Amino acid sequence: MFFSADLLDEFASLWFQAPMVISSRLLDFALSGGSPSGTAEVGRMITEKLSAASESIMAVNAALVNEGMIAATALATGTCASLAGASDRVAVAALKPYGSRVRANARRLSE
């Protein structure tokens, strides 16, 4: 079983960069000693996770509708070549909002 390059890219950013972002944020929070900047970062973490989750849900729904249209067209025309990779495309749609935020946070926190 082979995964698409887009899916591997999203997995890699979550697998390698997310723990670094988490540890960097925890270190910053510990060093802030409860200052307003530390509590602002906690609020930012929560807001980012909620917006990424809602974005992911909308992206998955759109991807499923798109894949349904592709499947209906394939059924009508008697082809099935366009159905390959449908699960990867839906998974990429689900992970992309999280991956983009992790990459942005990794850039921001590494400065």
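Above is the first protein from milestone M3; the second protein from the same milestone is given next.
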Amino acid sequence: MKKDKIMFWAATSLIALFEGVMPLLTFQTEMAKEGIRHLGYPEYFGTALVVFKVLGSLALMIPQVPKRVKEWAYAGFAFDFIFAAISHGAVDGINGQTFFPFAVLAVLVVSYIYWNRINSFKKS
């Protein structure tokens, strides 16, 4: 059980750092705005994306958040990573940026697996 909690918190903390804290601190930079424009999205989409990333990160990190909300947060991040890979692949062709979202998706999957393991212990 202790290993499961360590794995969950390590993976979830990485997700919260990459998807909640970093975007919140950098979304108004010119580089972030150019990244959104480069992919063909309007600037307001980047702002909306950051709001949902921060909310999703909070949902994953706060233990008192209902399970159904956490499930939606996991699903939202999964869609985000898949569509990020598709966007980069469509605009820039297949390269490292195309596959990086899948690496972060793997971390999200680890978080989800261990979150489910921890919750299955609570039911027993």
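Note on the second protein: The chain has a mean pLDDT of 92.
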